[in-house]
């Protein structure tokens, strides 16, 4: 299979094509796992340093040289997209993990669209932001205290999850302005081996705004950077991520004339989202 994320990306290769020699496979596996452990630590450090460098230097330079706010936002989002694309391709090149993004070209059709995805790994946002032309995101309040990410969040204009009516209004305004809003409705990373539990906030936004909803299904085998696992707990084999971008649905289809409250439509949509997010590959995230 080939990744349609970018024509510049190398084709995916499964297996090394070498004969399985028992007396050599074990030490080779141990060396590979040791290398992936070292490389994962190095890339964690690179991610933090890169975020700090973007905030202190590149985004500051953009603010000083680009006067139009809309153009500034375009440059900022493009900088984040290409930085993340470099990061995940470097992880692949180093042999830390492999991935496929199936249907990434569909994101080019999105205008005023809500993107809903499951959240098995710490890399999910990085994968999606690397291929979405514009990615507006809702982030946790606690991330504003992170010196490596705070500047990126503010420069990109990400929405902070305050849990208030003001957040709902901000999401509505962002979607009406043509933004593409990425939400992980679980609110945190999935718990490995357990059914998905979705918060109703994403469905409330979709029903209230009447926007299109695009579902993205993410699977990883074996699990990597999960909610329970630490970064240094390296899987025995190289993880492989598969990100499937599905067709859009109309949030208005979940409303009925007899409904006494929009909450009923939000419940229907939440049940549908849960079934769709679990339909493909969730069992692959079980240990």
Entry keywords:
287 residues, alpha/beta, Glycerol-3-phosphate (1)-acyltransferase, 7-stranded mixed beta sheet, 7 helices, 7 strands, 15% strand, globular, disordered N terminus, disordered C terminus
Overview of this structure, please?
With 287 residues, the protein is an alpha/beta fold. It has a single domain (22-285), classed as 3-Layer(aba) Sandwich (Glycerol-3-phosphate (1)-acyltransferase), CATH 3.40.1130. The protein has 7 helices and 7 strands. It has a 7-stranded mixed beta sheet with strand order 1-7-6-2-5-3-4, covered by helices on one side. β3 (136-140), α4 (150-156) and β4 form a beta-alpha-beta unit. α1 packs antiparallel against α2 (69-93) and α6 packs across α7. The protein is globular. It starts with 21 loop residues before the first helix and ends in an 8-residue tail after the last helix.
List the helices and strands and how they pair.
Elements: H1 22-65, H2 69-93, E1 98-102, E2 113-117, H3 124-129, E3 136-140, H4 150-156, E4 159-161, H5 165-176, E5 180-183, H6 201-209, E6 212-221, E7 240-250, H7 262-279
Parallel strand pairs: 1-7, 2-5, 2-6, 3-4, 3-5
Antiparallel strand pairs: 6-7
Helix pairs in contact: 1-2, 1-4, 6-7
**Mean pLDDT over the full residue set:** 84
Distance between the termini: 25 Å
Q: Which structural class best describes the helix and strand composition?
A: alpha/beta
Rg calc: 20 Å
Tell me the CATH topology. Glycerol-3-phosphate (1)-acyltransferase
Strand proportion? 5-15%
- Proportion of helical residues: 40-55%
CATH architecture: 3-Layer(aba) Sandwich
* Total discrete domains: 1
């Amino acid at each position: 299979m080939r990744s349609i994320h970018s024509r510049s990306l190398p084709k995916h290769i499964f297996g090394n094509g070498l004969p399985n020699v028992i007396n050599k496979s074990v030490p080779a596996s141990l060396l590979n796992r040791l290398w992936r452990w070292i490389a994962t630590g190095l890339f964690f450090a690179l991610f933090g340093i890169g975020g700090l460098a973007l905030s202190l230097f590149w985004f500051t330079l953009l603010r000083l040289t680009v006067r139009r706010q809309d153009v500034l936002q375009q440059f900022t989002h493009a900088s984040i997209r290409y930085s993340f694309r470099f990061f995940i391709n470097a992880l692949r090149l180093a042999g830390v993990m492999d991935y496929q993004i199936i249907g990434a070209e569909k994101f080019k059709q999105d205008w005023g669209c809500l993107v809903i995805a499951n959240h098995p790994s710490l890399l999910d946002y990085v994968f999606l932001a690397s291929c979405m032309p514009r990615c507006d995101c809702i982030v946790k309040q606690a991330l504003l205290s992170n010196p490596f990410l705070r500047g990126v969040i503010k420069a990109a204009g990400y929405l902070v999850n305050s849990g208030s009516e003001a957040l709902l209004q901000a999401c509505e305004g962002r979607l009406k302005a043509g933004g593409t809003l990425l939400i992980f409705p679980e609110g945190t990373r999935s718990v490995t081996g357990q059914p998905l539990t979705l918060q109703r906030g994403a469905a409330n936004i979709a029903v209230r705004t009447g926007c299109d909803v695009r579902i993205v299904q993410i699977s990883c085998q074996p699990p990597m950077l999960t909610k329970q696992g630490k970064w240094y707990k390296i899987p025995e084999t190289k993880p492989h991520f598969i990100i499937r971008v599905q067709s859009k649905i109309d949030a208005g289809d979940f409303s009925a004339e007899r409904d006494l409250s929009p909450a009923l439509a939000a419940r229907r949509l939440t049940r549908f989202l849960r079934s769709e997010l679990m339909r493909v590959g969730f069992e692959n995230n079980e240990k």
